[in-house]
Amino acid sequence: SDVTDERLRPLLRSAGDQGLFTSLYTSLAQQLPREPMEWRRTYGRAPKMIHLEANFVQFKEELLPKEGNKALLTFPFLHIYWTDCCDTEAYKSTVKEDMTRWHNSLRAHSSADWVIIVVETNDTKKKNKTNILPRSSIVDKIRSDFCNKQNDRCVVLSDPLKDSSRSQESWNALLLKLRTLLLMSFTKNLGRFEDDMRTLREKRTQPGWSFCEYFMVQEELAFVFEMLQQFEDALVQYDELDALFTQYVLNFGAGDTANWLGSFCAPVRSWSGLLLRRPIDMEKRDGIQRGEASLLDLRSYLFSRQCTLLIFLLRPWEVTQRALELLHNCVQELRLLEVSVLEGALDCWVFLSCLEVLHRIEGCCDPAQLAANCSHTVGLWAYATDKLKSLGELCGLVSEKGPTSEDLNRTVDLLAGLGDERPETVSSLQSPYKKLKEALSSVEAFERHYLELSHAAMEMYRAIGRLRSARLVGKSLAEFYMRKGDPERAEAFLQEAVKSYTSEGWSLPVTHTRKQIAECQKLLGRTEDYLQTSALLAGDGNLTTEERKHFCQEILTFAAKSNDQSHKVTLSMAVFSQLTRLQFRPATASVHSGAVLEAELTLRCLMPVSVRIQQLAVSIHFDLERAGTNGRSKGASRATNPGTVEFSQADPSAGPASSVAAAGPPLELDEIQDRSPSDNSLNSTGVVCKNTHLVMRRHDTGSPPDTANCVSPPALTVKDGAQMLKVQDVTLEPGNNSITFTAGQPGTYTLRQLYATVGQVQFVLPHIYPSVQYEVYSQEPQLTVEPLSEPLLAGLPQTVKFTLLTGHYAVKKGDALQLSNTDTMPILPSASCPARITSPAAELVGESALSIQSSEKVTSISLPATPPYHTLEFHLEVLCIIPHGPDRPANERLTNGEVRHRPRSYSHPDTPMTAIDQRMSIDCPWSIYSTLLALTFYIPFKTKHSVLSAGNRKYIQVCLQNVSDVNFTLAEMQLTEKQHELLELQSLNTKTQQLLCSKHSLFCLWEVRWKDDPPSCLQCVFSANFSPPKQDVSTFKPFHYQFQLERVSTLYSVRAEILPPAGEQHCRCGLLSGLEVCITRLTEATEGEAAEDSKTDADGPKSTKLMYEVADSSSNWAVCGRSSGMVSMPMAADAAHKVRIEVMPLFAGHLPFPKIKVLKYLPHTAAVAIQPDPDSCVENDSLSLLDKALDDQGDTASIRSRGSVHSVGSGDQQPQRGVAMPRLEPFDAGQVFNHSHTQQVLVLPATDDHIMEVNAT
Amino acid sequence: MAVCIAVIAKENYPLYIRSLPTQNELKFHYTVHTSLDVVEEKISAVGKSVGDQRELYLGLLYPTEDYKVYGYVTNSKVKFVIVVDSSNTSLRDNEIRSMFRKLHNSFTDVMCNPFHNPGDTIQSKTFDGIVSGMMVPPG
Among residues 1072-1101 of chain A, which lie with CB inside 8 Å of chain B? Predict the structure, then answer.
């Protein structure tokens, strides 16, 4: 019976008829595991369904386990006695005896797990027909003989080899019985075993306890579980052993030493690695059993068992994970136990073990599965790579020269420890053993193996996205290449690594890797790259000063080396020094040409030593368009100091700048309002960001901060042929340096690039950002004239300010401004005229008096000498003469030949004052052209005149309105008449001065008296003197107002009378009253009238036609019948005409008379026109012809409202329907005098009125 | 106790990294940087199962022969990494957890400082003190 079968199986011992058993064995062995059984377990462990398999072994008494035997594997769990005896005789004679002996020996070994199987066949029955007892009797006999109250210990199997239902039934019963008994036995024996094991474990603190012994015991249990295919439980046993051992090692580390550990502390002599190809490594197991195993042996064996079980459990990835832990742990444990190990031996062991685990896993998984689970295996690959590398270094396989003899000795020692290759792998082409041996055999083989492993590890890391790990492997590969003297390949890996560190802002790895890169580049002779890297390193704060100085010196040495122009090297400025600040003086960054603009740059030099720079230059670019703001960055309003631009840069002393601060552009916010369309009320309001697409743009995986060394040098583009600001020979000290540039070329310039030249090396800052502009400008002289105070008032002396911006022109002594004189605006001479000269910064430079000479045509102002780009200011007094009449002199020419622009008065929309534009023409010394300037003056007064009449007496009223904002004193108001000498104008005004306040009016009145004929036309001039109040008499200025009056004398008098109805004393409301109008001619025909009416009848007395009209605008009267009519009036004095019109008062009380109007009626000139009857009144109907004229009078409302019959709505008719139409013309004011104007008449209420009407207006 | 403690920003640049002065600082920088691979792997693995409230403690990121690297990620994706010497077997998972919790609390205090600019490296002396406390063995 071989226990070390592929599977462990519980053992069944069979006794009795071997021939019978053999015939049944096959079907029994097959059918037993077919049905699962529920296994109820002790210690509250969950019940399990298990399939029982069994090994059947023939019974031998000497094989029965002795008392205290711990071997579970060879333990017989069930003893079976087979018999097919059906003959009582035979039973009695032989079978019973044999059975008793069997039973006794079992009892002697206190084995209670047995069963007797009686096989019955029909054949046997038939054979011995005579002696046959009923079958049951044999069974009964056996039962009574052996099964003391345990009837189930005897089972009958009927016709086992026949295919009948009866046979099947009995088979099933047998199998069930066997299973049940087997399980019972298991449970009992295992329970006992476990108890024993625990007892043993509890003794572990006692002296003499041995871990190895205990190990064997617990492993026995594990075997049993494995046998039952309870791999999980089996694994638990090994894990418990693992943990127990680990704890002992840890306790040892803590000073608690167990004796048995001594064997594990022996020096390591063999490092052949894990062996996972056997289910049980009996070799190692024996070693453990003998207590001779080393720590590595124990660990290896333990792991190989765990590995086997895990693979049974289909958990290969746990194997890899545990393997890595184990390998790390073993290394630690050996260290902890201070086991002496040959240098490199552990590396060998780990390397072999890694590969062995990987091989084992590869053996049980398909490639696709492996590829998908790289993440589990990559750790082992990397670990193996690592170990191989250190082995290579140890054995001198990495150096350029190859191994020394010492290295070779070491290699031999290491290989000795590997022992011979295991028989399992001897025949395979590739095995960890062969690999290691080969790798250590030669430099080339090592390189091949190492590269293979490295690349495999890198590939896998990449495949699972662990790029950082991949780069780290790459870096270690680079180190390998460096040692091999292959800097070119090394650099590629290093560059990739440094890119990653830079982008993630890990400054220390950056520095370290960059140092390696520098080494590569130096070896490769890539000067430019090397210098660039050196510059980076020279400014790297992570390095010691000595190192930095070394790299700085490298640059300086190169710079000073040769003078060959073709060998210039351009490097990035950013790594050499940083532009931190730029300050303009003056702060506006805008100066006129000729002045000095200074730009002070602050450069923070990152070099550890001071560097002498031959030339520092800023390239500038001429801009066509001028930016609005100079000296500051475009679009950046954060400049707190004017003229200073701060260049945002990481402050290395404060560590990396916050990535928040560098977060994109400023917000452009706008307010929005949503109003309802119906009533414009506000629905909602909000703020919108217009540049969300810029602000919200995702910053690519978070830009890491610009730590001092985490900048990668940008690509450089040097623009040639640009204009430069230069400074020669500057020494930059470490830290901040100020360099001042001077600019002078006119134009607007943008700073573009910054260059620093050190011998052969040029540092370039390719962009100065934010962009900075400055301006050097050139300006034409400019002369402006403006009022000192607004508004300029005409008629009074006013001060105007002359401002001269000299621009590029330097005013020499003797230069003069020539002002053309005008009559309407003389320049008033003043005693002294001081002029102020101010610098561009508005500082007073000088003050001097101007000399002003006036000739007839020209006023000449000689200017003091003024430097360019200064301002010259002086004041002049001018007077704008108020025009007082419509008559103007003809156009005259100015001295320079230009046509004089007439000052025209016009009304200005902003002010009630009338404005006058005055133009000045000035000849300036810097230009051949005259400068034309305009000043606007305002007339402070508005004047109106009117004629007032009292019968024949006439009065002239002049109204003077002050429309300005200032008060005036008026004096000597006079009215004169030019033509009529006999006319007397008697003033009715006060003689004193009068105050005319702003916005107030002053009325003056004169009575006109004449000796003989009244004048038909009067040419009047009103004049007054005015000045601002409380001024001396001399300051009074005259004001004239010319006007003409025509047809002043009264032609007609109108007298009206209201006659009460007959028999009444007073008018009564509602009763018709009579209105009697009497029109009387007062004068003879005047010349004017004669001319006007020349077309009237030549024969008969001269007469004129008048139209009268009674209109009541206040609805007090109702005109009954005709309201208007025509009268023919002889042109003779005292000619009179009476008209009677029926009117009815509508209200009671004192009613004003209805208005009576008298108009001139001009008949059409053509004879064919309607000829109205001279003596009769014009019919109302015909009045429609006169609509237009009546409308103009504006008084026809009453006619219409009184229900007049004439048609209205002729408003859109042409005002004149040709010359043939008769016209109405009003008389001039004063020509008709109405005596009854404003007269009132008493109207009594109607007698039967019972309603009192109160009319309140 | 810990031999190296690092705080790493969301964008994976170090906010704070400190190791025992006796050890090679550079090595720890490399170790911590490489550990970010595993941190990211773990974070993205959790992200796939929705609704699962993420545990901040990521556990052992990866062991090396000499060190054990543990990770922790705050909700704002700031990572804490603690490197422990492998030979230091007395440290249990629970103790590592409590170290991370302590670290997180102290980090929160740093962030609460109105004068601290989020994203800047941590200069706080208190935080430094807490870290120092974790790096020297107790007693």
Answer: none
